[in-house]
Amino acid sequence: METNDSKRSRARYRTDYPSDFKFNYKDPATLSRFLVEGGKIIPSRVSKLSRKQQASLANAIKKARQLALLPQGTQAYDNFFRGEPVSPTPFEY
Questions:
Q1: Rounded Cα–Cα distance for residues 22 and 30 (Å)
Q2: Does residue 76 lie in a domain region?
Q3: 9 assigned to some structural domain
Q4: Closest by CA position to 18, among listed 49, 43, 41
Q5: Residue 58's pLDDT is what?
Q6: Count of beta carbons in the 10 Å neighbourhood of residue 14
Q7: Residue whose C-alpha is closest to residue 47's, from 77, 14, 72
Q8: Which mean pLDDT values do the consecutive 10-residue runs of the chain (93 residues) have?
Q9: Where are the alpha helices (DSSP H) in the chain?
Q10: 3-class DSSP string for 48-60
Q11: In this predicted structure, what is the pLDDT of residue 12?
């Protein structure tokens, strides 16, 4: 008779990111894999990262956003309640 343990043989954490993997804020291609279209960070239950990896991922994403390597959100979110940029030089015909 089989138990339910054989059905739960799925890996708990991602194998493509080992436990000693450090997320680098200078690598926006890797970091953008863990962002949804609206700019939110994917939760660890979906991304299958450990708690420590999820914390380092969040810190790297936040630092990359501060340095403008990643967007804050969608284009609509980034431009909401912001006026059009005005050139400091006057317009001439």
A1: 11
A2: no
A3: no
A4: 49
A5: 95
A6: 13
A7: 14
A8: 55 77 92 88 91 94 92 67 64 65
A9: 28-32, 44-47, 51-66, 75-78
A10: CCCHHHHHHHHHH
A11: 73
Query: The domain spanning residue 60 has which CATH number?
Result: 4.10.640.10
Please count the structural domains in the chain. 1
Structure tokens, 21: 């993997």
Q: Which tokens is 35 given? A: 């962002």
Give the closest residue to 50 by CA, choosing from 21, 24, 30, 26.
21
Six-digit token string for 61: 């994403």
Structure tokens at 54: 């999820």
In a domain, 20, yes or no: no
Q: For residues 34 and 48, give the distance between their C-alpha atoms in angstroms, rounded to a whole number.
A: 11
Q: What is the pLDDT of residue 90?
A: 65
Tokens of 6: 């054989």
Domain-embedded: residue 78: no
